[in-house]
């Protein structure tokens, strides 16, 4: 496994396993399969509704808790100091742990400043090894970075070959915040799995377009958490450490960047209205 070192000295695996949209009834099995493959970093969230399955799988694995890097996220309905504190305790109970390796604010809406103050308290108490944000564009990231006492260690944002987040990465690097990708496969949009550039480059190494896309992100110093409910795909997504893309390969893939979201923009008023409707 390869690691990045966060701004507080904590080491985080470059490759993890995500459980977004994994049905709660399948989560324990899927995470156990992922652990068997070799994953030790597991990413979940309050909004996914499957924290219990993750916690059950880690307990059933029989491996020491310290072997895992466990991430969850505070949802916007739990935003604010008091609600966030209660939700963090609830998440740790569901995950059967007395500490989290990384806790993120899931969305840049609601009283996320109150949420972050609660997270800082848990961090100082030793219950969180690192804290950060998710879906924070450069403007909101810079805002919370400037005014927070414990600087965000990670920003998890949509990042894939078609949206490489070049502007965001510029500022995250400047302030020593690690970028982490959600949606590293772009959920298959723009025919990513048969993209001719990725396919041709992959052929040189005996790899798929998907593996090539993941390797590109890793070599770009992006932490990735690909998701699959199929063990054979989990294995394929894990087999990224036996090849290295050349500078020409990297340049060809960099040229695929469209610089725009393939899902939704947090700056779009309709998107913001949708998030507000949840509240």
Describe this structure as you would to a colleague.
With 279 residues, this protein is α/β, with parallel strands linked by helices. The protein has a single domain, classed as TIM Barrel (Alpha-Beta Barrel). It contains eleven helices and ten strands. It has helices at 24-37, 51-61, 81-94, 112-124, 138-147, 166-174, 196-205, 209-219, 231-238, 247-254, 269-278; strands at residues 3-5, 11-13, 17-18, 41-43, 69-74, 102-105, 131-134, 154-158, 178-182, 223-224. An eight-stranded parallel β-sheet has the order 3-4-5-6-7-8-9-10. α4 links the parallel β6 (102-105) and β7. α1 (24-37) packs across α9 (231-238), α3 (81-94) crosses α4 (112-124) and α7 packs across α8 (209-219). The model has no long low-confidence stretch (mean pLDDT 97).
Radius of gyration: 18 Å
SS element count, helices: 11
Rounded mean pLDDT is 97
What would you call the shape?
A: globular
Tally of separate domains = 1
């Amino acid at each position: 496994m390869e690691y990045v070192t966060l701004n507080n000295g904590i080491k985080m695996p470059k490759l993890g396993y995500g459980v977004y949209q994994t049905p709660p009834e399948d989560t324990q099995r899927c995470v156990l399969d992922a652990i068997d493959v070799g994953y030790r970093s597991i990413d979940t969230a309050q909004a996914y509704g499957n924290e219990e399955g993750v916690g059950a799988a880690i307990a059933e694995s029989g491996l020491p808790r310290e072997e895992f890097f466990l991430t969850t996220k505070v949802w916007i309905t739990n935003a604010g100091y008091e609600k966030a504190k209660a939700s963090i305790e609830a998440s740790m109970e569901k995950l059967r742990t007395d500490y989290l390796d990384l806790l993120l604010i899931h969305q840049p809406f609601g009283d996320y400043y109150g949420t972050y103050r609660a997270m800082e308290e848990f961090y100082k108490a030793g219950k969180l090894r690192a804290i950060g944000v998710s879906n924070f564009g450069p403007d909101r990231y810079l805002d919370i970075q400037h005014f927070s006492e414990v600087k965000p260690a990670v920003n998890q944002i949509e990042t894939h070959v078609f949206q490489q987040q070049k502007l965001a990465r510029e500022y995250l690097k400047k302030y020593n915040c690690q970028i982490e990708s959600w949606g590293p496969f772009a959920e298959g949009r723009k025919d990513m799995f048969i993209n001719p550039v990725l396919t041709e480059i992959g052929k040189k190494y005996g790899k798929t377009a998907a593996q090539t896309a993941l390797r590109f992100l890793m070599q770009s110093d992006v932490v990735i958490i690909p998701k699959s409910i199929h063990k054979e795909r989990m294995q394929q997504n894990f087999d990224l450490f036996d090849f290295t893309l050349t500078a020409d390969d990297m340049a060809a893939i960099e040229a695929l960047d469209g610089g725009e979201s393939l899902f939704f923009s947090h700056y779009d008023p309709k998107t913001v209205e949708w998030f507000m409707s949840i509240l």
